[in-house]
Amino acid sequence: MDTARSFTPVHAGDIGAFDHEADVLVAGFGCAGAAAAYEAATAGAEVLVLERAGGPGGSSAMSGGELYLGGGTAVQRACGYDDSADNMFAFLRVALGPHADEEKLRLYCDGSVEHFEWFRERGLTFNPSLYEGQSWMPPTQDGLMWLGENAYPYDVVADAVPRGHRPATESYGGWMLMEKLVAAATEAGTRQHADTRATGLVLDGGAVVGLVARKYGERVTYRARRAVVLTTGGFVDDEGMLADHAPMLLGHGKVSAGLDDGSGIAMGMAIGAATRGMSVTQIAASILPAMICRGMLVNSRGQRFINEDVYPGLASVAAVRHQPAPHWVIIDEEGYEDIPQRDLWNVRPAFVDETLSGLEKDLGLPPGALESTVATYNEHAERGEDPYFHKNARWLRPLRPPFAAIDPRRGFEPGGEGGGSSTGVSGFTLGGLRTTTDGAVLDVSGNVIDGLYAAGRASSGMHGEGYISGTSLGDGTFFGRRAGRAAAAGRRDG
Amino acid sequence: MDTARSFTPVHAGDIGAFDHEADVLVAGFGCAGAAAAYEAATAGAEVLVLERAGGPGGSSAMSGGELYLGGGTAVQRACGYDDSADNMFAFLRVALGPHADEEKLRLYCDGSVEHFEWFRERGLTFNPSLYEGQSWMPPTQDGLMWLGENAYPYDVVADAVPRGHRPATESYGGWMLMEKLVAAATEAGTRQHADTRATGLVLDGGAVVGLVARKYGERVTYRARRAVVLTTGGFVDDEGMLADHAPMLLGHGKVSAGLDDGSGIAMGMAIGAATRGMSVTQIAASILPAMICRGMLVNSRGQRFINEDVYPGLASVAAVRHQPAPHWVIIDEEGYEDIPQRDLWNVRPAFVDETLSGLEKDLGLPPGALESTVATYNEHAERGEDPYFHKNARWLRPLRPPFAAIDPRRGFEPGGEGGGSSTGVSGFTLGGLRTTTDGAVLDVSGNVIDGLYAAGRASSGMHGEGYISGTSLGDGTFFGRRAGRAAAAGRRDG
């Protein structure tokens, strides 16, 4: 047996004297753990965070740092956009669906402005300017970006306003987010044990009263006077759990800091906790938003399948999950030249050809496939229409020779999401422990497990089968805060 | 709390005197339970089966009764087909994949001829004749049918031989299969408690030593001297479990006898058992194999997406899981008239039109969508080719006016799979408890749970993400037998 993968619970009676204790134990010091620790400590609890790595941050610190927020934040208003909680809800229930958790989503939208201000109070700065380009990750310090809100059908179900909130730094901003959150938790009194990997829950009857962990090969025991909060992240780094629950990510790149080992989920399952949405994944293919808008994305048969101006994660899911591979980006010279350098990320064509029939041969497509697809596209684009997929008219223009095909399997050079995988595709998991809106973990019979909370990607949050950038950091911190407050209010102080 | 959904385990020490006991307890008297009970009893164990319904049969008895068997059975040989275990394996690892359990699959293919003979020894008859039509369910007593083995790409990865084995009765044959298996288990000495719903496992330390159940509202306790075998079926009838694990089936019809409540899976999860593939589902849309072969299947944009001569469950999955709805079957008058009455199932066109542009309007498709798709199809069909999807040349013929569109949402009339749902789609779940090849249930740390076995759709079997008719009855009985033998060999006789 691989002891690194043992999550068997321990009974309190078998421990005797615990090595350490606190009111609230938090396992994992990413964004959800930091938010939970801050709130629990601020509510007066003595909080101790166990972190497997040598220091805090986790996958949150490696992320882009976008926070999906709205409902009328100061940044939205400064950029001239009116938003409301209802409008945000109308968008997200479709964008994160089908089967979004509407109860969690409602709370998240209603609390979004307050959550935004909470980040500002923790010292995070968001500049009052909108990035106008199409990008996974703006290279500017603009505080706001579009995440597909202005694309069909989202512009029909809700008023189109941008909600991607970005800390004031270029490109990846997760490090800055975590720097502020960890500082806030620490200043509130949270202690941290690093290099300490939680491996199992401690039970007293049916209640969770602590954690056992490994530190430098030794077992260490922790008593929780009030509650344990699991914020260990998802399971993209555990191949066994991927095979059992989300095999579509096998073989692809991992959006993580390398320690999303699913241990919190497994510790919960080991005592009978329920899970939800374990097969749901976020997926990013190496397709440039600024490029597919101006051209088209086709499958291995040369067929289009989506309006290319949607949030690029959605186009990625549509391709990788639902369309035969390989996928190709087709664009003409005029479109390629029109892409601003800052949004081009050094992506170069795999093939260039004067004719579509030549490009079909280069790509191994059925003869006539691209000619037919482009002819149909051009015929409608002349009139500013896309009756098949409803790409916004501002991107519609007939494609003319010479043509180019880009191979997303090559990834982005250098770096960028997907750049680290041989498939050009990378992702992470969204499923996890089933929780109440306060983060209490439920067992398979639907009962709350006394003393156990979870948040972030160790839990299943507000997502159904859809995803938008910033909703994982957003839901991790929002429901992490709620879990921290509920854990601090735990009743086992004796 | 809904006590009908409580699966909390009970500790043996809290029970005192058990109401009943046996060497091996089996929960659920469908095909896997009957096979397990037969083998355990034949191996000398005292076997007691608990069944929630008033009598045995379960969803197996309501099923078509096809058994996916091969490797050179007497029926295959009588019909003139050479097959081997390797050839069967080559087909199934692709057809049940990606991510089929190759260890289980290998055993299944290697043991398939023996398993076929086991059914015959239990009194089941398979006539030595092949049904030549294209159908979900032949109306004849032919003992063999094709299940897509002769369609691309399966005819490339393996030699095409038919493996759908059918008991000697018209149409649905599950009742006959279960009649024989229940009789065999009973003659071997198995006792049955009907109207008895197992609700929780009894634990002694980490070992499973019994079951608690409800009968007419009262709790009844059962001790297992050797082992418990969970064969309670899948979870398509539990809306909560569907929402958490396989939401794509929400709102669709259920292929079950109404009691696939996931209780065995939940009882296992309640003590920390691992699961696998909980999001995997079989799906049947109301599309007639004999009709789509002769015409085409298109999505809401008028695009084809699969060679229409595949196993119709695969075409259903391709449509429902991956293509925008509504889906349409397009055929011309000549093709419609060519369908044998016995394979037509009274399915009638929703729209008939002299022109494709007229049909596009009827169906609300983008203008030119069907004209383009049919023109491409016809151009290649003239030459007996289908370069996009590789439908077999015997089905290729240009489609000519007048044209018809069939709406699969209408279901089959009368009855037929999908007929009972408002969407024309129905399905069942394939995920469940993670087991060894002998049916021992594993916990989330990968350790065998002492005294606990599972088979059939309460477990995750040899399936990856694909499905073929007859592989669920096949895997349920094959691994049910193995679980029964292993349970009977249990070591807790004292």
Describe the structure.
The structure is a homodimer of 494-residue chains. By secondary structure, chain A is an alpha/beta fold. Chain A has three domains: 231 residues, 3-Layer(bba) Sandwich (FAD/NAD(P)-binding domain), CATH 3.50.50.60; 105 residues, no CATH class; 137 residues, Succinate dehydrogenase/fumarate reductase flavoprotein, catalytic domain (Flavocytochrome C3, Chain A, domain 1, Alpha-Beta Complex). Helices cover 30% and strands 19% of the residues of chain A. Chain A has 16 helices and 21 strands. In chain A, strands 1, 2, 3, 7, 8, 9, 10, 20 and 21 form a nine-stranded mixed sheet that branches. In chain A, strands 14-15-17-16 form a four-stranded antiparallel sheet. In chain A, strand 2, helix 1 and strand 3 form a beta-alpha-beta unit. The longest helix of chain A has 18 residues. The radius of gyration of chain A is 23 Å and the shape is elongated. The model of chain A has no long low-confidence stretch (mean pLDDT 95). Chains A and B meet through helix 9, helix 10, strand 12 and helix 15 of A and helix 9, helix 10, strand 12 and helix 15 of B.
When the domains of chain A are counted, the total is 3
Largest interface between protein chains, with number of residues from each side: A-B, 50 and 50 residues
Looking at the structure, the CATH topology of the largest domain in chain A is FAD/NAD(P)-binding domain
End-to-end distance of chain A: 37 Å
Which of globular, elongated, flat, extended, rod-shaped describes the shape of chain A? elongated
Structural class of chain A: alpha/beta
The level 1 CATH classification of the largest domain in chain A is Alpha Beta
CATH architecture of the largest domain in chain A: 3-Layer(bba) Sandwich
Biggest sheet features of chain A: 9 strands, mixed
Estimated radius of gyration of chain A: 23 Å
State the low-pLDDT regions of chain A, or none.
Answer: none
**Assigned CATH superfamily of the largest domain in chain A:** FAD/NAD(P)-binding domain
Tally of alpha and pi helices of chain A: 16
